[in-house]
Amino acid sequence: MLDVELSLSRIPSQTIVCVGDLMLDQFVYGEVSRVSPEAPVPVIAVKREETTIGGAGNVACNIATLGAACVFVGVVGDDAAGQTLRDAFARHDGRVDARLVVDPERPTIRKLRFVSEHYSSHLLRADWERAAPVPEAIEDEILAQVDAVLPDAGAVVLSDYAKGVLTPRVVRGVIARAKALGKPVIVDPKGRDFAVYRGATLITPNRKELGEASRRPLADLDTVAVAAEELRRTAESDALLVTLSEEGMLLKEAGRSAVHVPAAPVRVRDVSGAGDTVVAVLALMLATEAGFEAAMRAANAAAAVVVGKRGTATVSVLELRSQLLPAAALASEEKIVFDHALLGERVAAWRKQGLRIGFTNGCFDILHPGHVRVLSQARAACDRLVVGLNSDASVKRLKGEGRPIQDVVARADVLAALEAVDLVAVFEEDTPIELIKRLRPNVLIKGSDYRVDQVVGHDVVASYGGEVVLVDLVPGHSTTGILKKSGQAPDRAGGPAVPDTMPG
């Protein structure tokens, strides 16, 4: 599992190949104050117009806005709308390499929307398109373009709007080529037959698409999870992620229980293109070697940003970080809790929002890269991370005379300054077992130098369906090791110095 901060820092170095149905999105915004005398229809007084890249092209725009590079392979007609799209891609500072195949037999897909600004609602949409499979010659050109760029890509996106570019032959060809090179393939699907995407790494239907493909009603999250697993098996994919609009997202990985994350509480202005943003972020996160769950959480945060904007929107890394790590906006002192009753109130508020609560603990005497790695990876496994911090008396009992090097206020301040940490809870006991019982976290996180059965509270968490996650450590980093190098390692209880057995 790669931590969120590291994944976000790696995004600018990624290149994603995106293949799919390209569209020109046009918006006419204005005010409606009367009905036409010519017919019983509203008259819109036009205030402004916008032209943007839509459809699968919006995936490429999101990738570019996040600072990465995208090679986009799509089809346009030999017309003015096609040239408009070429010019629009060129404005992305070289981050989008648009390899557009011209099909003279079809128009460039164009969608024109009339929007009332006062009511924030769409009044009318006009479409220009020919939704039919591209001919074999165009398929050959698409696959040739993919062959040319795939070796340098970190991941591949197939963005299917069922307009004819992603024919079964193109889909099978791209997936086979990507798998041969070990590249993850993320599919935004259309239609009822998910078998056409067989072998893809991750498939991302929305609730309606999943229901149609599984041919069953999806009344609740349990039935969504069952349908997701059935279709994941059918498509022989590693995972299937279902977008659930205001209910968030649900992830079903092979061999793991389904994981649900709620949608962030935001004011929804326009959902146009939100699915494209989700797919773009998923692809970038998987390209950085993040796990499926961390990728889902990042995509969920990105969706919360774009639905709060009008039109076909994108998200920046700064916006994504702010949404993904909200604790970064808090003052450090707001994140430190000595009163466990107050801690319980905050956690209860998070749980009411449906957020997944994570917990880890330690002495954190001299913060080092090993601590940062554990905390960052712990945050990637949950929505909110609580860090239990041993009091000074507790550290002294565990580590011996001369410890802690820093008092509890200093240690708490340093932890609270980390974006990965949402709350710091100080406890007096030698172990955090009472704190764990009070908080009832969904996930308990420790370093991989432990076995699951050695983690304090593992049985408590398992008793109510929680899980224990062991995260990788940075070799050669410990507080005791640092003190030994400085010649200041204190003996434990007057005896010989021994290695730490917990983060310290």
Automatic annotation (TrEMBL):
List the residue ranges of the region (Ribokinase): 1-330
Q: Quote the record's binding site residues for ATP.
A: N206, R207, K208, E209
> What residues does the Carbohydrate kinase PfkB domain cover?
15-314
Q: Which top EC class applies here?
A: transferase
Q: Which part of the chain is the Cytidyltransferase-like domain?
A: 359-453
What pathway annotation does it carry? Nucleotide-sugar biosynthesis; ADP-L-glycero-beta-D-manno-heptose biosynthesis; ADP-L-glycero-beta-D-manno-heptose from D-glycero-beta-D-manno-heptose 7-phosphate: step 3/4; Nucleotide-sugar biosynthesis; ADP-L-glycero-beta-D-manno-heptose biosynthesis; ADP-L-glycero-beta-D-manno-heptose from D-glycero-beta-D-manno-heptose 7-phosphate: step 1/4; Bacterial outer membrane biogenesis; LPS core biosynthesis
Q: Outline the segment boundaries, as ranges, of region: Cytidylyltransferase.
A: 359-504
Alphabetized GO MF terms: ATP binding; heptose 7-phosphate kinase activity; heptose-1-phosphate adenylyltransferase activity; phosphotransferase activity, alcohol group as acceptor
Q: Which residues form the active site?
A: D276
Quote the protein name from its UniProt record: Bifunctional protein HldE
UniProt keyword annotation of Cell membrane present: no
Q: Function, please?
A: Catalyzes the ADP transfer from ATP to D-glycero-beta-D-manno-heptose 1-phosphate, yielding ADP-D-glycero-beta-D-manno-heptose.
Question: What protein family does this chain belong to?
Answer: In the C-terminal section; belongs to the cytidylyltransferase family.
